[in-house]
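Exercise 4. Each item below gives a protein and its sequence. For each, produce the structure-token representation.

Item: Ornithine aminotransferase (Papaver somniferum).
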Amino acid sequence: MAATKKSLQYVLRSISTGRRSFSALPQGNPSSSQHLINLEYQYIAHNYHPIPVVFSHGRGSCIWDPEGNRYLDFLSAYSAVNQGHCHPKVMKALVEQAGKLTLSSRAFYNDKFPVLAESLTNLFGYEMVLPMNTGLKAIIVSCCGCFHGRTMAVISMSCDNDATRGFGPLLPGHLKVDFGDANALEKIFQENGDRIAGFLFEPIQGEAGVIIPPDGYLKTVRALCSKYNVLMIADEIQTGIGRTGKLLACEWEDIRPDVVILGKGLGAGAVPVSAVLADKDVVLCIKPGEHGSTFGGNPLASAVAIASLDVISDEGLTERAAKMGEEFRQQLKKVQEKFPEIIMEVRGKGLLNAVELNSNSLLPATAYDICLQLKEEEFFLSQHTIQ
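Answer:
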């Protein structure tokens, strides 16, 4: 049954209740939001379809536009600002290091990256760090619905036609399996034997719509990877650094992947930082000249990442995410009970959450329309289509 306009408005009001008041920031760029949106439309590639609002200032969980309107940011740049926008400790580290040294390249040592590497290995329990994403040969098994980026290698692993349409030739050596189906994964392992190098997955699928696997799935995957001598590679770029109420989302099932990929929240929204964590038997397979990056492990990013991790730990943000996420979902489920024909499911872990809507009941509105309306209520969210 299609939802009435009145009931949709009530859903929006129910979701947006309980707004807190925040002190206003000074007006920033005198250019109007509409002018800036027009400039972007004219001069920038149309590879995104953003919500029509311009970010000008950010503090904590809030964003201001050039006109001084304040919004509550529920998206957090896809988990890149888990510490909040412009956290003072992170900004202090950024400014101080920017005045000393920003780049050394990996041709030399610098005085920040070794400190970050030690911190990462101690915190997450691995022996070594590679300051960028790694690549493996042979066959890689990946899950349909997972998002690992937009390079030619990783879109070759994708089941999303929008990611691969118009690109090619796609790289061979990839097998795909449904997320959450451990039996299908074991069948692939059995059929391909020792040709499989690794299984790449997100512990919770973010871009697909916050898809949480069945209880026990990750433990079963861990057992299968150990049995068939396959590297278990966890992409924790969006789920890691405390977002789900655990430092790593894999900790919800108390499992230890062979390789963990980190990013986004590691840089607290200040600079792009990525790291691959593994033990020596994996990392030391990479020899000088085989893999590298000019900006990998640079002192500016390293200083920011050190501060970012300190903030997560010192302020108890992981535990806070678990508590706030539980309270948030409880309130959303109360709204769901009133409108079960519209809200199909409320799900998530910590502060990585989704509200799945019944597209038939929304017609002619879409999830994007809901995001636009919530923007008027001073909330930022993002929409995803369940494939």
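Check: Residues 12 and 370 are 8 Å apart (CA to CA).
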